[in-house]
Design goal:
By secondary structure, the protein is of the alpha+beta class. The protein contains 11 helices and 9 strands. The protein binds phenylalanine (PHE).
């Protein structure tokens, strides 16, 4: 084939090549070591000297023409590919980001947080105790020895190792007294467990917030004032409360606090002056110190605050219920 024919064929093939891989094959076919042009260049040496210069120039021109066509087509194909990329792979940086869906705080958590904040503001520290307790902290140290009939008041989940799921937050009183000594102002929020049958007002798992104040000359007046202040802040200003005599082995005297809701008195929490035996079990001298303690039911408070008529909603996991409460 003569040079012109080779060049024409090559240029036509290059022009119609559709992608860079095909183009690379053409480069090998027309310029590679086994190509006709390479063969022609190699054969120049055998030509008579007079023809060599002319033939050499012609072959080189053909070679350069093919090279230039290859490079030009390569640039074209690249540019086209990049334009294509811009069509398919683009990002609109002005689009607003998709917001993560926000969850809702559980009503028990909301009430617990508010209680902690309120007590914190009144100078109480917030302390937590273990859910799994021993008999000593849950009962004995609280003036409830094994033989005491009051043990039956707390239907207990006993564990096989002799420990138990705490039936109230009162055992944290003992832990806090031993840890911090007197004087002391602290609240202990957390879950408690009772082996009870469940109905609209009773759950086997519920939240309590225990309060303990130990100082000199602490009286029931301090106790009533503190509870009124907290309930006023949590529910509504001037909420009506009533204090009745009650009985707990770990307080003497003991009281029950009732609260007025829709014209009815509802039992809200137990409380009293810390029993000297309990102070002693906590390593505090009852001749020098007095104190009060109370145990607020968090679920009860949440029911009153949000008008919830059945305690079982709290652990229902029902989204329609949970979504009615504010986000975090
Ligand atoms: N621990 C008692 C209960 O769970 C409540 C309480 C706490 C009573 C502190 C008096 C003082 O019923």
């Amino acid at each position: 084939m003569d040079l012109q024919a080779i060049q024409d064929e090559a240029l036509a093939a290059i022009k119609s090549s559709g992608d860079e891989a095909a183009l690379q094959e053409l480069r090998v076919r027309y310029l590679g070591r086994k190509s006709e042009l390479a063969g022609a260049l190699r054969g120049l040496g055998k030509l008579p000297a007079a023809e060599r210069a002319v033939a050499g120039q012609a072959t080189n021109r053909a070679k350069q023409a093919v090279e230039a066509a290859l490079d030009a087509r390569r640039d074209e194909l690249r540019a086209a590919r990049e334009v294509g990329l811009a069509d398919h792979e683009w990002l609109d940086l002005t689009l607003p980001a998709r917001r993560p869906r926000r969850g809702h705080l559980h009503p028990i958590t909301l009430v617990e947080n508010d209680l902690e904040k309120l007590f914190w503001g009144m100078g109480y520290r917030v302390v937590e105790g273990p859910w799994i307790e021993d008999e000593f902290h849950n009962f004995d140290a609280l003036n409830i020895p094994a033989s005491h009939p009051a043990r039956d008041d707390w239907d207990t989940f006993w564990l096989s190792d002799g420990n138990l799921l705490r039936t109230h937050t009162s055992p944290v009183q003992i832990r806090a007294m031993r840890r911090f000594g007197a004087p002391l102002k602290a609240v202990f929020p957390g879950r408690v467990f009772r082996n009870e049958s469940v109905d609209a007002t009773h759950e086997a798992v519920f939240g309590q917030l225990e309060g303990l104040v130990i100082g000199r000359d602490i009286t029931p007046g301090h106790l009533f004032h503190s509870i009124n202040a907290i309930l006023g802040a949590l529910l509504e200003e001037g909420v009506r409360t009533r204090y009745r005599p009650g009985f707990f082995p770990f307080t003497e005297p003991s009281f029950e606090c009732d609260i007025m809701r829709d014209g009815r008195w509802l039992e809200l929490c137990g409380m009293g002056m810390v029993h000297p035996h309990v102070l002693r079990a906590g390593g505090i001298d009852p001749d020098e110190w007095t104190g009060f303690a109370f145990g607020l039911g968090i679920d009860r408070l949440a029911m009153m605050r949000y008008g919830i008529d059945d305690i079982r909603w709290f652990h229902s996991g029902d989204q329609r219920f949970l979504e009615q409460f504010p986000c975090a």
